[in-house]
Structures are given as structure tokens and as C-alpha cells.
Design a protein that fits this description.
140 residues, mainly alpha, 2 domains, 4 helices
Length: 140
């Protein structure tokens, strides 16, 4: 495996779990580059992805994306539990917001698309008041 960031290490872990022998090659320190300087946030909410997916891939495509994101988060939580990692794991709501009132419509479309895709999303009435798309952590 080339690269010792979260993607490379996660891929190596999955391959080892399936009985493969793996060597990880990293030019610097493991998990030190982009991976080491992140908030380590895992989320199924990615800016305005769901409305775009609904328009370009249909509601089924948006749901597949939401399901895959939630499955990945659950899988990461299972690995943390299995390894007994003291990671400070916590579940919290995710937010997408508009800095200008003219963008509220895009947030409302995103909220509706995310809701259609199976995510728990705040009501449209609260979106009009707060300009926030609130999505809860994935359901188990």
C-alpha cells in the first residue's frame, strides 16, 4: 500500500482482515499529512451532495450514496470498538449553512433530497428560520 494516511491505512487494514499480506509505504510519518491535520470527522452530509445526486442519478442514486456513507461510519465505529481505541468517538449532528439568504433555497432542496435519501433532517420550517440543514447521526 502506498501512503500511510487514513485511506492507505484503512485499505491495508481491510486487506489484512481478508487474509492478505500488506506492506505500507509512507514517505514521512504515518497519519501525519492531511490525515493528521483534520478534525477526523465522519459524516454522511457533504455540503450540497444529495440534491446534485438526486438530479443527476435520481433518488435511488442519492439513497445509495447515503446508505454507503452511513455504512462506512458504522464500520469505522465497529473497528474503533473492536480495537478498543480510545478515540474520543462521539456522535453529533452535522450542519450545512448558507451565508447569504439567497442560498436558502439550495439548502431547502438539499434538505429535501437528504430526507428522501433516508437521512434524518430538520423540518423545512426551521430551515427557513435558521438557514441551517441539520442532519442527525446515522441510524443504527
Amino acid at each position: 500500500m502506498v501512503g500511510g494516511g487514513i485511506a492507505g491505512l484503512s485499505t491495508a487494514w481491510e486487506l489484512v482482515q481478508r487474509g492478505r499480506e500488506v506492506a505500507v509505504l509512507e514517505a514521512d510519518r504515518l497519519a501525519a499529512g492531511a490525515t493528521g491535520h483534520t478534525t477526523a470527522k465522519l459524516t454522511a452530509l457533504h455540503t450540497l451532495a444529495y440534491d446534485h445526486l438526486r438530479r443527476t442519478r435520481g433518488p435511488a442514486g442519492a439513497r445509495l450514496y447515503a446508505d454507503s456513507q452511513n455504512a462506512a461510519i458504522r464500520h469505522a465505529a465497529e473497528i474503533v470498538e473492536e480495537l478498543g481505541v480510545d478515540s474520543g468517538w462521539e456522535e453529533a449532528a452535522a450542519y450545512t449553512y448558507a451565508e447569504h439568504p439567497r442560498l436558502v433555497g439550495e439548502l431547502q432542496a438539499e434538505a429535501e433530497a437528504a430526507r428522501e435519501a433516508g437521512l434524518a433532517v430538520a423540518s423545512p420550517a426551521s430551515l427557513r428560520r435558521t438557514r441551517v440543514c441539520r442532519c442527525a447521526p446515522p441510524r443504527s
